[in-house]
Predict the structure.
Amino acid sequence: MSILPKKNELGFFEIRLESIGGLGANLAGKMLAEAGVLSLGLRGSNFSSYGSEKKGSPVKSFIRFCDPDVEIRDHSPIEQPHVVGVFHEALYKTVNVVSGLPADGIVLVNTTRDFDDVKKDLQLEYGTLAVVDALTIAVEEKTKVNTAMLGALFRICDFLDPEAMKNVIRKTFEKKYPHLVEPNLRTFDRGYNEVQFKSYAVPDGAVGKAFVRPQPQLGFLTQELGGVITAQANSILKDLSGSRQGFLPELNREKCIDCAACDNVCPDYCFVWEEGEDKRGRKQMFLKGIDYQYCKGCLKCVEACPTDALKDLREMIGYADANRVKKNFPYAAGGSL
């Protein structure tokens, strides 16, 4: 008798993890598949999909499970997962994280917000929504988000054995990082115990989300000769907010001495300055604020600030938009100085 709760037409139970580089989704997928295969005798596979392999870029991790008598001959990306794990809320802006999710599918989100707000952002009509504050758990235990998300995923996939996952955690960390074994075990337990669920009734005849494969704007037939980038100043138009891993710098203008130490270490041209006069009438540049569109949340500015005018802040939905000081790029916008 199969222990898998659901199967697709090929006999697979499939999980897709949506994340950004640096949060450990690739390792989480590997450990999840390993626990199912080694402890339960299931057949499984895991692989990831990512672009430039850098911190902050979108990452997908795929996990397939099937019964021991079923051969895995499908190694394509998972398009219709039974479970989706979203490691970072900002992915909503750029990635359709619930693409291909069936009507009765389960979505796990790393968030502090309530169910209905998350459901609205995901445009989820029915199914099961699970939420866990994986970032707070990771910060308090001095670990990473992925272990807390693994704990929550094991609660969702109740056919998996949590003790087997703990053995995988020990095996993964005990040789190179033995001091991280116990913190990661605590993180896993907290993710398992603190995840919350809310189900939305699935009406008869309901259909799931259609899978949509993003297509490039410029392809074989439409690209300019030589591969020219036709959009001028395209890096100026880019939004880097999806690269942040939960924290951003908060500016206290009263403590700022306009020393520009923050701007010297900022890799992304985030700080906005304006010309003015000091108390003696001498011209000087004053820090006006931060353009969070370009901020990746590296917090180098917080480390460099000599007066504590910049502090790290747990990012809340809407904070960056409400406190953003926009840069002025008139030429890129088609205007003039």
User: Anything to note?
Assistant: The longest strand covers residues 58-66. The longest helix spans residues 25-40. Residues 127 and 161 are 24 Å apart (CA to CA).
